[in-house]
Amino acid sequence: MTRTCSLLGAPVETGASQPGCVMGPASLRTAGLARAISALGWSVADLGDLAIGPQAPLAHANPAIHHLAETRAWIELIEARAFEAARAHDLPVFLGGDHSISAGTVPGIARHAAMLGRPLFVLWLDAHPDLHTLESTASGNLHGTPVAYFTGQPGFGAYPPLKAAVPASQVCMMGIRSVDPAEEALIAAEGIEVHDMRAIDETGIIAPLRRFLDRVRAAGGLLHVSLDVDFLDPAIAPAVGTTVPGGASFREAHLAMEIIGDSGLACSLDLVELNPFLDERGRSASLLCDLAASLMGRRVLDRPTRAFAA
Description:
Elements: E1 4-10, H1 24-30, H2 33-38, E2 43-49, H3 68-88, E3 91-96, H4 102-115, E4 120-125, H5 146-150, E5 171-176, H6 181-190, E6 193-196, H7 197-203, H8 206-218, E7 222-228, H9 250-263, E8 266-272, H10 283-295
Parallel strand pairs: 1-2, 1-3, 3-8, 4-5, 4-7, 5-6, 7-8
């Protein structure tokens, strides 16, 4: 039976420090994301881009915070539409926009999982843990807050009330290499599973990823994958405003996506922080499309199991 996929754009850049992410969804479409997925036998529905209207300013005790009202409105809208997309399609793909969209996508998918009576697990592929609260962020860039929010941490009275949270024990982070002290303290307090780039350098990406997928499978869970461009090394994906050297290589990233695809556990995907203004002839957008295709079944060769005579 043909599986269904939806594409939903959330051109958010209010949570970031540099303009340009607003062009991310258009760049992914131009790079051929729908065509790549369709070629794998999926039925693809492009749901277009979301938009919010003008917002009255919201004040906060932390003077660094900017665009709080807009971010809140985006989260509320994205959560509702992510929930609808999950109900209607086998695997919705959310096109960012900055990573604040995950404060909407993950709770929306978590609400859908809860209706099915299944736990949601989140694989966070990013250079940053995005574990700031509204009180702890020094930059005021709200793309650094989604994981703290959707895991139900205190300090989010200005965000929409969560309809469904994801326990911190059901989050796995990979590729991390830029962590602020407040985030490090929260990782330790919550016991969040983190595989930074040193750990990946030492042990490889396969073993910890398969262990996490085994946990998801054993729990009867669903898996949301949130892929930030800065998970990748900027040498292969320069189109990001938060460049951190030493990210995942081309093969590490494709291998991770292929293993996730093999597991059959992924129920939704974020592609975020793509800033075409900083790209080089669309190479980052093309790479993200190829990685999404790897998650959804593309392989260089099929490897059938061979029977050998005794």
